[in-house]
Amino acid sequence: MKEAKPKDRGVLSLIAELGSESSAHGLARIVSSKQTKRRLIWTILVIIGLAAATVQFSMLVKKYLQFQVVEVSEVKDSMPVEFPAITVCNIEPISLRKVRKLLSLPNADLKRWLEFVYRFKFGKQTAHLTSIRAFYENLGDEAEYVRHELKDFIKHCRFNKDQCGSSNFTMSFDGNYYSCFTFNRGHYDKILMHSTGPENGLSLILAVDNDNPPLGTYGVYNIDSNILHSAGVRVVVHAPNTMPSPVNHGIDVPPGYSSSIGLKAVLHTRLSEPYGNCSNSVLEGAESYNNTFFTCLQMCKQRIIIEKCRCKSSGLPEVQSSANVPFCGYIENWRDMIASPNQYPHDVYLPRLICEEHVSHEMTTDRSYEVSCKCVQPCHETTFQKSVSLSYWPLEFYQLNILELLYNGSIDQNRLKEAYTVLSNLTKQESMKHESSKEKENMEAGYSSQEREEADRASKLIRQNLLRVNIYLEDLSVVEFRQMPAYDLADLFADIGGTMGLWMGISVLTIMELVELVIRLILLMFRSETRQMPEKQTIPNGMVQPERRQFLQTGFESSV
């Protein structure tokens, strides 16, 4: 049998030494066992344990690479809460008072448009052509004129016990509601609230301009619309610097009532890659707004309609590519058609509007388009839970004084002006009739039936046109829904340690033993090479030895 070299014997003895001292119990048994059969059994057991540990290790790594998340909720107290943005829109988009003025003009396009809609037939698109959106799509300038203005709409504003005014509001144009006004748009610093209740929130008195229509002239009721042809205000509560969507996220507030909207903040914290795909970026195509998933989808729908129909929808947000794109409901030659109706077919075909309705219906029934939109949730988002309550407002006893405070004697709105005149005259008459305190107590008994009817009508007119809305935080506690890794790196290491300990009896210290073995083997090999260096310098066949050669070389150098 060939005898092992000293180097090999050193390696084997080193492995045997560390194996016998190893904390991995199976390896120690293999090295220390005297009997071959016993050593074989332990070897098989170690191989089985190693295979099982490898399988379970791969399962753990696969579980980690799935990057699953769990959502936990937490109530946070004793912290300031940011006040939201509040957007208010008049449910009736147009001012009937302005419509009356517009119809009095001889060349107003509104007259011709109404005649055009009544004269021609549009099939299934008739409902759209008689809608507010079609009016805006085809008569943009006149639609701008008849919209509600801030000074006529918001008559009183108070926030956190201080007065607020027009400078605190930003106007935006919506295809369904025309003028909408946003408080706390987000241009300035955050408004942090430290108190709750209506007195510490936003209080608005709004005039809905529910005026009498011109006698003999009435609007076209769109039976297919679920949102129009009612009186009141649409209120949207949303995070500052986000785009409001009154149609989808608003609350209807009726006139004649004081509406209280209590808010509770809800914070959503989401994970980014690799656990999620949230983003803190601004909206692509509307960089002045922060990203929200819903608004991103709405803008994506607009891009799809533009791509497929070569037109844009007035019911969706504008995008950068839509600046010079016509509305799908725009009829370019409608003025010529009404001027010479006999030269055009009675049935009007509107391919772009048909395309818009078809594509919109497809996106409503099939959400596969969302994949191409690549919209993601924001990493940090604040929403608000809302509770709404109503109370009768204003009481008849205070109605005259309210009109005096809000309008200061100058009322343009016909119905409110009529109510003010009636109540003012009744008050003056009764003041003149009754001078003693006893007579004042019997003032109500002295009203005639006609005066009572006039007073009731005045009260009704006031309540039909005015409303108050209070929006406030009812709780400073914030509910946070926070995403967390369901299985993070610490869990992976812990499970790997448990797996290796279960199947192999291996711990971190065992791995250090393996590192020690590798280091000692390297040192052993290095020392063996060092010892062999002099042997390689000897010269066989009786030639001069290295020591002798060095001596001769030294002598030669000295003689030189």
Quaternary class? single chain
Low-confidence stretches: 536-560
Number of helices: 21
Sheet/helix structural class: alpha+beta
Overall pLDDT confidence: 84
Sheet with the most strands, sense and barrel status: 8 strands, mixed
CA-based shape: elongated
Termini, distance in Å?
56 Å
Strands, total number:
17
**Approximately what portion of the residues adopt beta-strand conformation?**
15-25%
Helical fraction: 40-55%
Radius of gyration, Cα only, in angstroms?
Answer: 42 Å
Describe this structure in words.
- The structure is a single chain.
- The chain is α+β, with helices and mostly antiparallel strands.
- Among the domains are: 6-67 and 487-527, no CATH class; 403-463, no CATH class.
- Helices cover 45% and strands 18% of the residues.
- The chain is built from 21 helices and 17 strands.
- The protein has helices spanning 6-21, 25-32, 36-65, 96-103, 109-119, 126-129, 132-138, 140-146, 150-153, 246-249, 293-309, 334-339, 351-365, 370-373, 399-407, 414-433, 437-441, 449-465, 489-504, 508-537, 546-559, and strands spanning 69-76, 81-82, 85-90, 154-159, 162-163, 169-174, 178-183, 192-193, 202-207, 233-238, 251-253, 257-269, 282-283, 286-290, 380-392, 466-473, 478-485.
- Strands 1, 4, 5, 9, 12, 15, 16 and 17 form an eight-stranded mixed sheet that branches.
- Helix 1 (6-21) crosses helix 2, helix 7 packs across helix 8 and helix 11 runs antiparallel to helix 13 (351-365).
- The chain is elongated.
- The two termini are 56 Å apart.
- It is a multi-pass membrane protein.
- Residues 431-454 are annotated as: Disordered.
